[in-house]
């Protein structure tokens, strides 16, 4: 059996995508009917965030969008850039690079001359000043993806622009809680709902020409955690026959059971010291119990992140 997908345009101009399962006898069974705007992207599932972010930028405000890898931040940035440009505004959305490369890209996007009067290329400091002067007299928006990778020089410069009222959108994965990141209002991208993940997986399966049974789909979906990138990846792993059950990466290890076990052992040591009238054992157990309690408090004060992508 094979799976086919056809795009058709209706009389009212709306596009629809029809997905069929072709049986061995040539008959076709409809699997899904979706509008063209829903195809091949996750942006339609972030429409609410897109509207809120675009409205905030057009209201001369700045925002920080946070999301784990693969949650759709870069795609969301592209759509917002398109939205603001369609409103008739200038937008600079440079790609990741060194500080000077970033400043050069912003200057090029805004049409700012990057050469001095003598015809020499401007330094990073000169570019910062030229862009800041231009923005103070003109209206434009900065949309900066992967902002957590920016060096301190760019972050400090963005902080000064923010203080001057420059609207900007930063998108980052687990940004540090300092400088520009702590000053901007933030939106955190939530995991996509189950129906959205299933549609993404169905699209990827159709692109690869494979059929996933409902049981397979449900099993694979449990490994995505609402992450669209993982939704596509697990389907590709299934297509290649790979074992994709390994952890993506560990960002946090829960050591609470070990700490509780150690705490109980030292409490038992205290009782033994009290029962055998052994002052040294009793004091040692008390000191170690307090030490374990302090360690537990310190660990719980650390910032937590999900142990796996999508969780």
UniProtKB/TrEMBL annotation:
TM helices/strands, residue ranges: 258-276, 282-302
InterPro entries tied to this protein: AAA+_ATPase (IPR003593), AAA_22 (IPR049945), Helicase_ATP-bd (IPR014001), P-loop_NTPase (IPR027417)
The entry's keywords: Membrane, Transmembrane, Transmembrane helix
Residue span(s) of domain Helicase ATP-binding: 54-192
Top-level taxonomic group: Bacteria
GO molecular function: ATP hydrolysis activity
Pfam families noted in UniProt: AAA_22
Protein name: AAA ATPase, possibly membrane bound
Organism field: Crocosphaera subtropica (strain ATCC 51142 / BH68) (Cyanothece sp. (strain ATCC 51142))
Phylogenetic classification of the source organism: Bacteria, Bacillati, Cyanobacteriota, Cyanophyceae, Oscillatoriophycideae
